[in-house]
């Protein structure tokens, strides 16, 4: 959704069916999918192998970042790989939901080709959040946020906090806010000179109370303008 808002025509590719995917979708192995004519690829390899917390058997989880990177480097187009902190990615960019005024933190790291210099504000962890992982945990929230109360951990709160209203709880728990891909997609279009897409910072980034701020391949999401 974020790439579409940025200005791309989006086609999703995943080896697993995605019945709620809101754009054209092709069920296929993204590592073998032809990329001729594609301008930009957004890749989100499975993250379970690299998670720093959670009840996951990491040794049995797939380790696909290297294979995805090799595939993208051979494609000859612009690309981004997204994953959790702890993944073996070059940290060209780190985003947090608080940068966009969202009710989640959901830190994610991004490796980009070619690298684009992007200035972002610091995280703001002072506000209540919800934890979007596993399954909804009810009105009390998923965990204690220090001395601050958590927002309820329900499907409706998850949807509102992530900016996603078309996914199930399970799908939300494996997703990132569209604000991330919209923000990066606009940078890519602007830096590539594709279309007329001036960079517009989200409202949270333009706020006067943020001093110092300048002026999910699902396995593969491919965009062509």
Describe what you observe in this structure:
This protein is an alpha/beta fold and about 220 residues long. The protein has one domain: Rossmann fold (3-Layer(aba) Sandwich). The chain contains 6 helices and 7 strands, in the order αβββαβββααααβ. Strands 2-1-7-3-4-6-5 form a 7-stranded mixed sheet, sandwiched between helices.
List keywords for this structure.
single chain, about 220 residues, alpha/beta, Rossmann fold, seven-stranded mixed sheet, about 20% helix, globular, disordered C terminus
Sequence-ordered SSE layout with sheet pairings:
Blueprint (H helix, E strand, L loop, with lengths): L1 H5 L2 E6 L9 E4 L12 E4 L21 H9 L4 E6 L9 E3 L12 E6 L41 H8 L6 H5 L4 H15 L10 H4 L13 E5 L1
Parallel strand pairs: 1-2, 3-4
Antiparallel strand pairs: 1-7, 3-7, 4-6, 5-6
